[in-house]
């Protein structure tokens, strides 16, 4: 092969690489048909952490103890022992609840159960799966090799490896529906929604929760609203409360293709530690590039055929000696 | 017969013993990682799941090991046979570098005892860049073993097998060009799904694979220059500068293409302002870019290319540039969100140092006992 031909071929390959990614990129996925999720209303959360404690009970995980004091649970972030955590936002004097200035607010961090889960997309061995019916993102330790690409590929850093265990595994919220727990399949709700005293964490179908979220955003500040507790489909009770001034933003409606766990708040989400996400999931861009280059292994097969021919010709002189 | 001869001489020298001590320290901490878990040795955390074991040992280590790949393109695809004397040490260094990468991938795997799961087709997720990297790197290590095996077969005098192998070798050489093209570009693609966590100065999305492969090939040529220069000094052999200076030309061309693509991406996506933001990322970017520019400035003139010392300096600058590009994108400027930071622990660093020391020890033993280095003076 002449050098010029090679350069031409290389340039052609590079062109496919650069343009094809955009041309063949897949769209964001759609929510699962019977997608279940949760709605977290930050303005209702009083920071009691009953959900953190219940989560540990359901998942058989020990409480995190800090400074020798057992206070319910002192977990400050997600880990191999903590699948759900309540974080606090503070500004200035931190006197007024749900005020961006000189105020405070609570934010729940747990798996968002993405519609386009990054962890599922990047996992080489299909150890992360999106349930085709419920959309719950599940983990399967029997397939996992522990490469932790799921942690890296998750916009929320949710999948957590048990670094302190020589034979550890990934841990993440599986919406209380993993084998042996199966609360959702049995018609129950998630543990955190069940124990939430104010209905800040509400369980339900994604569709119903989205409607509920939008109803709340439409409320006038001060308007009395009947807030349900527990499972939105069959709330066991509710309480009346004046509506706060919500930000007009349902987190999870569109972020990176949407999530099944939705958040609303009266403080901007970047202040609550939510990541800077556009509507397109990064994983879907990666998939577009990967499928352009490796679809049916066509491009590599053609390249190998060409290379074999050229190398064969160029090794004839010296008998292929390397 | 082939013009390659074992170097001979004493194996256990003072530098060799020093390397051995480093290797022992590294293997001790590696043992602790297996008995007490990753947290006992590393500073990995919930936001930084990939530390230096992934980023140095696998991502950068295999790019350093692209010498065999770069020379295979030159000799067998572009038909420049005069570079043949350089191929064996380059293939050996590639084999060792990739073996280190493969070993690094295993001991960094949280569930290493299930590593075979990636080989079972019913587990494969074709959306995963990691799957491509894993399978392709594993296959390429086998290809490198076959590419290097003539040296071993010559040593033990297995003439029949050698003859058969030589007849089929072209297939493996072709694979030896294709496979690194695939996984070295994919190592860049790993950054795409990391989305916003990768600093905008390094998050080129669809261009990640192109930038990764361009820098990997350039690092391949640079490592050949580096090893050639060091063999001349370390083993007191005649200098190969005339041959190496030809590679200098390739390095210049490739860096220019890389810089054009790199800056075009920043320009078209409107990210040029970030270069001058004066923060840590902008500082790292400027430093990295300078390291890419130095070899271009040095090697642009024919006269300087023929100066062995300047050539070596240019190669080192390029190797640092390529390593920096990867470190910056995967580690230094990575921001997984508030509350997370990572700096490798001493034991974590010692594992990487120990493994590299071990790799150099194996290289020394093999060039002294097997026909790897070319013997005559060449034009």
Automatic annotation (TrEMBL), chain A:
Protein name: Hydrogenase 2 protein HybA
Main location: other
Pfam families reported in the protein's UniProt record: Fer4_11
A single GO cellular-component term on record: cell envelope
Cofactor dependency: [4Fe-4S] cluster
InterPro entries associated with the record: 4Fe4S_Fe-S-bd, 4Fe4S_Fe_S_CS, FDH_Electron_Transfer_Unit, TAT_signal, TAT_signal_bac_arc
Keywords: 4Fe-4S, Iron, Iron-sulfur, Metal-binding, Repeat, Signal
Domain called 4Fe-4S ferredoxin-type: residue spans: 36-66, 102-133, 135-164
Gene Ontology molecular functions: 4 iron, 4 sulfur cluster binding; metal ion binding
UniProt KW DNA-binding keyword: no
Native species: Solemya velesiana gill symbiont
Compartments where located: Cell envelope
Cleaved signal peptide residues: none
UniProtKB/TrEMBL annotation, chain B:
Signal sequence segment: none
Keyword Disulfide bond recorded: no
Transmembrane domains' residue ranges: 12-30, 50-78, 90-109, 129-148, 168-192, 212-235, 247-268, 274-298, 310-329, 349-367
Compartment list: Cell membrane
UniProt cross-references to InterPro entries, sorted A to Z: FDH_cytochrome_b556_subunit
Entry keyword Lyase: no
Membrane topology: Multi-pass membrane protein
GO terms for biological process, alphabetical: anaerobic respiration
Domain of life where this protein originates: Bacteria
GO cellular component: plasma membrane
PANTHER family per UniProt: FORMATE DEHYDROGENASE, NITRATE-INDUCIBLE, CYTOCHROME B556 FDN SUBUNIT, NI_FE-HYDROGENASE 2 B-TYPE CYTOCHROME SUBUNIT-RELATED
The protein's name in its UniProt record: Ni/Fe-hydrogenase cytochrome b subunit
Organism: Solemya velesiana gill symbiont
């Amino acid at each position: 092969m002449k050098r010029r031909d090679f350069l031409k071929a290389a340039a052609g390959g590079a062109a496919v690489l650069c343009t094809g990614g955009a041309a063949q990129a897949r769209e964001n996925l759609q929510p699962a048909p019977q997608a279940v999720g949760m709605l977290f209303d930050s303005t209702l959360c009083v920071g009691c952490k009953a959900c953190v404690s219940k989560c540990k009970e359901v998942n058989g995980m020990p409480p995190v103890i800090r400074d020798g004091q057992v206070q319910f649970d002192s977990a400050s972030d997600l880990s191999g022992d903590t699948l759900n955590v309540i974080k606090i936002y503070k500004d200035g004097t931190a006197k007024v609840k749900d005020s961006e200035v000189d105020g405070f607010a609570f934010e729940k961090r747990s798996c968002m159960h993405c519609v386009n889960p990054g962890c599922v997309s990047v996992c080489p061995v299909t150890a992360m799966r999106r349930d085709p019916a419920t959309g719950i993102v599940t983990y399967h330790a029997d397939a996992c090799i522990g490469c932790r690409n799921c942690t890296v590929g998750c916009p929320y850093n949710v999948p957590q490896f048990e670094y302190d265990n020589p034979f550890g595994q990934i841990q993440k919220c599986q919406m209380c529906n993993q084998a042996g727990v199966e609360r959702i399949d049995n018609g129950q709700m998630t543990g955190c929604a069940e124990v939430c005293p104010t209905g800040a964490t509400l369980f339900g179908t994604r569709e119903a929760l989205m409607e509920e979220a939008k109803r709340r955003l439409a409320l006038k500040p001060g308007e009395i609203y009947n807030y349900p507790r527990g499972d939105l489909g069959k709330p066991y009770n509710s309480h009346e409360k004046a509506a706060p001034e919500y930000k007009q933003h349902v987190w999870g409606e569109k972020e990176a293709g949407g999530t099944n766990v939705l958040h609303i708040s009266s403080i901007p989400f970047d202040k609550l530690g939510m990541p800077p996400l556009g509507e397109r999931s990064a994983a879907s861009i990666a998939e577009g590039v990967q499928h352009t280059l490796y679809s049916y292994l066509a491009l590599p097969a053609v390249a190998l055929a060409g290379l074999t021919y050229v190398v064969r010709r160029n090794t004839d002189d010296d008998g292929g000696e390397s | 017969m082939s013009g390659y001869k074992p170097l001979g001489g004493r194996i256990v020298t003072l530098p060799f013993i020093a390397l051995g001590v480093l290797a022992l320290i590294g293997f001790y901490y590696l043992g602790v990682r297996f008995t007490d878990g990753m947290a006992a040795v590393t500073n990995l955390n919930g936001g930084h799941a990939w530390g230096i074991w992934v980023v140095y040992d696998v991502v950068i280590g295999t790019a350093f090991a692209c010498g065999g790949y770069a020379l295979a393109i030159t000799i067998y695809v572009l038909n420049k046979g005069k570079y043949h004397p350089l191929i064996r040490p380059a293939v050996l260094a590639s084999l060792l570098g990739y073996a280190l990468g493969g070993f690094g991938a295993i001991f960094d795997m949280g569930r290493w005892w299930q590593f075979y799961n990636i080989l079972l087709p019913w587990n494969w997720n074709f959306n995963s860049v990691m799957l491509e990297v894993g399978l392709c790197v594993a296959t390429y290590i086998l290809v490198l073993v076959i590419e290097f095996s003539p040296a071993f077969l010559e040593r033990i005098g297995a003439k029949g097998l050698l003859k058969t192998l030589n007849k089929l070798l072209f297939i493996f050489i072709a694979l030896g060009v294709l496979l690194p093209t695939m996984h070295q570009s994919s190592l860049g693609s790993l950054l795409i799904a990391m989305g916003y966590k990768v600093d905008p100065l390094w998050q080129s999305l669809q261009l990640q694979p192109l930038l990764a492969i361009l820098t990997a090939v350039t690092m391949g040529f640079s490592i050949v220059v580096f090893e050639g220069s060091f063999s001349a000094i370390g083993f007191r052999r005649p200098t190969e500068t005339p041959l190496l200076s030809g590679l200098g030309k390739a390095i210049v061309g490739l860096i220019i293409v890389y810089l054009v693509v790199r800056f075009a991406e920043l320009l078209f996506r409107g990210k040029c302002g970030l270069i001058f933001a004066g923060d840590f990322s902008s500082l790292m970017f400027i430093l990295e870019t300078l390291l890419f520019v130095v070899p271009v400035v040095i090697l642009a003139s024919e006269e300087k290319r023929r100066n062995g010392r300047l050539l070596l300096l240019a190669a080192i600058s390029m190797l640092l540039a390529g390593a920096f590009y990867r470190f910056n994108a995967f580690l230094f400027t990575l921001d997984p969100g508030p509350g997370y930071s990572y700096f490798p622990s001493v034991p974590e660093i010692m594992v990487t140092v120990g493994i590299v020391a071990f790799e150099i020890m194996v290289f020394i033993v093999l060039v002294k006992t097997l026909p790897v280095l070319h013997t005559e003076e060449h034009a």
